[in-house]
Here is the input.
Amino acid sequence: MAMFKFLSAVRSHLPVEEIELFRIGAVSCDEEYMDITEAEDTLYPPLEALRFAIMYSHLEYARFLLQNYGAAVLQKNLCCPLLLLAVRLNDEPMVILICQYSASITEKTRINYLDSRGCELMENGKTALHAAAELGLLGCTRILLQHGADHTQKDCDGLTPLHRALQKFKASYNVFLCIMELLKCERQIHGDVIPKIQALHEIHHAKHNCIQCGNVPSSPQPTSLLKLSRCSILNLLGPRISLAIPLFKSLLPVPVLKYVNFEGDD
Here is the structure.
């Protein structure tokens, strides 16, 4: 009964205080809030509660758990990291929330949760960026890159997110867009990648209102310095740049503003 009440409360998006009372009752604790170290053997420790908050997209409850137990729950070695779970559910607000807290935890513990890999058996060592690109989740791919996800990280097959997405059989247009997003981070495009990207572009160009024609590579030339600078600034500032574009532009010299478009996709 306690299990059902807790799950029902999370699924119904009840207030955080009510859900916590159900969780504490489920683990038979008289204290209002339990420390993570005391909850290892209980029915619903914060780690499991956070998993259910992500599964049922309860953003406020997830924020509460990360604020109170984030440093502990994000250090746990899981078969499927919680960030990877949020990406597979295509829950962009949840992905942003976990990325924000993982950044602060990385500073304290030096554990890079953003690039944590799933187990070899279930996830083949994929990171959240691998999953986002492979599934064609453009929003999640951009969020992860903006928060500094490592696009060079390899899975158990030795594939980066870009190569994993290119391995997708009959890749959709969204997968193609994710590939183009990952290309912005590449300093040098490998020759074996170019024919695959060009083939994907030919498939989807006629079917969709394609806006990527000018970005499809034709030779393995190094990425231009302007594009590298733009990507570096966007990756560093992430979503914050959209809140301060006028102020940011006022700090740049006129020659830079003449050539760099921060709002475009190129």
About this structure: The radius of gyration is 21 Å. DSSP finds 14 helices and no strands in the chain. Residues 17 and 237 are 34 Å apart (CA to CA).
